[in-house]
Amino acid sequence: MERDLQTVHRFAKALLSQHGLHGWSVFWAHSIESTDLGGVTLAHIDRIVFSATHMAMMTPAERRGAVRHEVAHAIAGVAAEHSDGWKEVVVGLGGSAEDSKLVNPLLYPWFGLCPDDHGFVSVRPPGPNGFLCEDESHDAPVPLKVWRRNPKSRAFDPGVARITDSYPEPKSIPTFEVGARVKVIPFGSVKYDNVSLTITGITERDYLARHDQTDETIVIHFDGVTNAEDPA
Ligand SMILES: [Zn+2]
Ligand SMILES: [Zn+2]
């Protein structure tokens, strides 16, 4: 497994440098908090972070698809999101915009059903309150009554810890507190450059923030915002 993940790492680095993105780095985390993604591309710090647990559960073809997906974000610009421009880049890299990054639930280390029959998966063990279903149809998170641990999941392979030890994501530290007013450092986004936000929460690498004009909730990396009073 470790060798397979090292191959994924080299493939990502090679694609980036073939496209002139020499300043970009690739790191590995156990998982990307609060998402079910194989990876994430961070505009403000020119960084791709892969979820080692999700990559471990994928087939080799799915892993290459996940790499092309993220590298295409880096080439097209993260602000392009999943636009037609981004799709063209993915296809140019030999991939497909439809390449799904979703993994079969039965391959996860933990899976179950909520009382309303929503499927649930996790790459992290249950917390003190067990697992919670956060499907948007619930007013508040609902505890799962039925779940099991799958000891055969490839997410438990020792290669997962080894790749995250080989390329650990440098720790980012939040410089603002909940309630602070900030603005988005421009990254080429018509929609989000310089918009004012109020921070409402802090996670592992991101702020949760409220868009001052639209009330929309935004997830943005610690390094993606600056003091609201700073000159543009
Ligand atoms: Zn994407
Ligand atoms: Zn549910």
- In the CATH scheme, the class of the largest domain would be Alpha Beta
Distance between the termini: 46 Å
The number of distinct β-strands equals: 13
Shape type: globular
Residues in β-strands, percent = 15-25%
Protein name: SprT domain-containing protein
Overview of this protein structure:
This protein is of the alpha+beta class and 232 residues long. It has 3 domains: 2-102 and 159-166, Zincin-like (2-Layer Sandwich); 110-149, no CATH class; 181-227, SH3 type barrels (Roll), CATH 2.30.30. The chain has helices spanning 2-18, 52-57, 60-76, 84-92, 158-166; strands at 25-29, 39-42, 47-51, 110-113, 119-122, 132-133, 142-143, 146-149, 181-184, 196-202, 206-211, 217-221, 225-227. The protein has a 5-stranded antiparallel beta sheet with strand order 12-11-10-9-13, with no helix packed on it. Helix 1 (2-18) packs parallel to helix 3 (60-76) and helix 1 packs parallel to helix 5 (158-166). The mean pLDDT is 93. Residues 69, 73, 82 line the site of one zinc ion. One zinc ion binds next to loops. This is SprT domain-containing protein. It comes from Nakamurella alba.
Briefly, what is this?
This is SprT domain-containing protein. It is built from 5 helices and 13 strands.
